[in-house]
Amino acid sequence: MSGQTLYDKLWNQHLVKQRDDGTALIYIDRQLLHEVTSPQAFEGLRLANRKPWRLDANLATPDHNVPTTVKERAEGNSGIKDPVSLIQVQTLDDNCLEYGIEEFKINDPRQGIVHVVGPEQGATLPGMTVVCGDSHTATHGAFGALAHGIGTSEVEHVMATQCLLAQKMKNMQVRVEGELGLGVTAKDVVLAIIGQIGTAGGTGYAIEFAGSAIESLSMEGRMTVCNMAIEAGARVGLIAVDDTTINYLAERPFAPTAEQWEGAVADWRTLVSDADAQFDKVVTLEAEKIEPQVSWGTSPEMVTGISGQVPDPQAALDDTVQRSYMRALEYMGLQANQKITDIKLDKVFIGSCTNSRIEDLREAAKVAKGNKVADSIKLAMVVPGSGLVKRQAEAEGLDKIFIEAGFEWREPGCSMCLAMNADKLGAGEHCASTSNRNFEGRQGYGGRTHLVSPAMAAAAAIAGNFVDVRTLPANDASNAQEA
Amino acid sequence: MKKFERLEGIVAPLDRANVDTDLIIPKQFLKSIKRTGFGVNLFDELRYLDEGQPGQDCSQRPLNPDFVLNQPRYQGAEVLLARRNFGCGSSREHAPWALEDFGFKAVIAPSFADIFYNNAFKNGILLITLEENVVDRLFAEVESREGYQLDIDLENQRVITPGGEILEFEVDEFRKHCLLNGLDDIGITLQDEDAIRTFEEKHRQQRPWLFRQPA
Ligand code: SF4
Known about the structure:
The structure holds 2 protein chains of 2 kinds. By secondary structure, chain A is of the alpha/beta class. Chain A has 3 domains: 6-166, Aconitase, domain 3, CATH 3.30.499.10; 168-240 and 266-289, Aconitase, Domain 2; 293-471, Aconitase, domain 3. Chain A has 16 helices and 19 strands. In chain A, strand 3 (30-33), helix 2 and strand 4 (58-60) form a beta-alpha-beta unit. The relative contact order of chain A is 0.13. Chain B has a 7-stranded mixed β-sheet. Chain B is globular, with a radius of gyration of 20 Å. The chains are: A alpha/beta, B alpha/beta. Chain A binds chain B through residues 13-14, 16-17, 25, 27, 29, 39-40, 43-44, 47-48, 50, 53-54, 56, 84, 87-88, 91, 121, 125, 127-128, 153, 156-157, 160-163, 165, 253-257, 260, 263-264, 267, and chain B through 1, 31, 33-36, 93, 122, 184-186, 189-190, 192, 195-196, 199-200, 203, 207-214.
C-alpha cells in the first residue's frame, strides 16, 4: 500500500462513519461564525428545538458588514448605517449571547475577518477540521488543517451534530520549486498558479501546496496561498506542518499550553504527506519564472506578469475563450495589447482575508515609506485584518507611514473586498486590490478590480498606474533585469 | 422537521405553467435573517395589487381578488395543484420556506424543477408528480366543487379523490422515509448520535489540545 497524503491523513483522523452512498460523516473541531451566513442556521436550530452540540467548538466575530471608518466604528453597532447590515450584526450578538458562544464583538480588539482571527488566536490548529460559512475558509489549510467553506444549512448541521456530511475529494499537489525573486510574494505565487491551472483547475480536488518556494513562505504568506485555493476551484488548500507552523502557534491564546505542547507538536510533525503518497494530479511551477502578477480581467485566471500586456482576444485559440476575453476587456475598459503598466488607477485597496495580516502591511509600508499617493488616486485605503493586526501595525509605526503617504488607515473588517459596507468602487473605476475576487461588480457596481500583492498595490497608489515593484529602490536593483 | 402524517386537505389550483422561484418569493424578501415569516409574501406579485417591500404589514395591503389564494373557498388550503415545471429558476431555499410557512404541505404538478424538488423535500413538503392529463382532470374537479379535498396517503403512495378514485404516485424510498419520520439531514445524522459520541471521546483522548479553551 502506498503512503497517505496529508489530506488522506486528516480525512481518516476525522471519519466518524462512511455511508454506503459515498458520503461520510466527518467530525468538525472548529466552526467559525460571522453575521452573514449564520442567522438562518441559528433560527433553524431554534425552530427544530435543537441545541448546539459543542459550544466551545464555535467562535464568532462580525466582519462582512462592519463599517471601517474610525468615526462610525466608535459608535459600535449603532454606527452601522444600513439597516439590514445592522440587523445581521445585532442578530449575531443576540444568538451568541443566547447560546453562550464566544464572540469577539464589533469593538473587541480581537475582532476582525474570521480567517485572520482564527489563526491569530491559535483557534486554528494543525490537525483540525475547520469550517465556516464562507468559501475562503480554505485559508486555514495553511496550518495543515482540513478547512472547508460550507453553506448555511451546513452551518446548522455542524452546530447541531458537530459533523459535516462530506464526500472525499481527489488529491492534487501543486509544487513551486526554487527561490522567489525579491519583491515577488505569496500573492504573486498563487495568482500565477491560478493563471496556469485556471479557475476550474482544482475542482473536485484538495490541493496541497508544496515545494521549496512554499516551504520558504511565512505563515502569513502560506495563508495567502491557501486562501485562494477556492479561486483555483478547490474547496480545500493545504500546506504541510513544519517549524514555521509550530513557531507561529506558540503562546497563541487557544494553542496548547506547556503540559500539552510537546504531545501536540509530536502529533503535528506527522501532518505531512508520506514520501510515497500518490497524488491524482501534480502541477509544478518554477519560482524564478514568477513575476509580480496583475489581473486584467473579470476572473482570477485572467492574470499576467507586470511586464506583460492585456491579451488580444483575436489570438485566443478557441471561440469561448475569445468571447470571454472580449467581454472582460469591454467590462474592464481595456484595449488588446495594452501594457499592464499603462493601466491607470482610481482607487487602491489594501486589505481582505487574502492580504491584511501584519506581514502584508509591512510589505506595503516598505513601498509607501517617504512617498506620496498620486494626485490622480481618489482613495487609497489600508484595512487591517483584525484589531490585533491594527495594534501591531501601530506599534511598529506603519499607520504613520501610510497616513503620511496619503493612505486612509481604517478599522478592521472585510470592507471593500465585497462592498457590503459603505466602502465601494464607483462604476468604471479601476482599483488595485489585494483581495481575491475580480468578478464583475464585486467591489461595487461597474467597478474594475485588479488583483495584486500588497507591495504592488502600494506602488500603484504612488505612481497612479501599475509599476514593477522589483525596480523600486526598496528591492535589489539587480533583480529588475528579468522584467 | 415535522412528520408527514396522512393528510386530508383543501386543494388550491394555481393554473399557470413554469412558476419560478421569483414568483413564489420575490427577491426583495431574501435579505432576511430568518427562514420563517415568508408566508405572507408567498406569490407576492400575484397576491397583492401594490408592490411589496420587506417589513410591511401585509394585512393593510390591497389584495388581488382574482388570485386564487385570496378566494374564500380556498382558505386554509394545504395542497397546491400546479402546472408543469413548478419551482424553476434559482436555488433559493426561501421558496419552500414560503410555501411551508403559508401552510402548504404538498404540491401536485406534472413536473417540478430539480433544485426546488430537493429543497422542498428537505423542508418537509411532499411533491407529487402526476400525468399531465390526470392533473388536467383534477383542475376541473377542484374548480367545479367548493371545499374540494384530497386524501394524501404517503405511506401507500396514493392520492384518493372525493369520488374514491385512487391515483398512485412514485417517490424515492429515502425521501419518503425522511418525510414519514420527520427526518431532515440533521435528524438523519443524529440517528448516529452514539457513533459521534464514541468518536468524540476517542478523539478527545488522543488529541486533548483540540478541545481546550483559553483561560
Ligand atoms: S475579506 Fe472578502 S473574501 Fe475574505 S471573508 Fe471577507 S468578504 Fe470574504
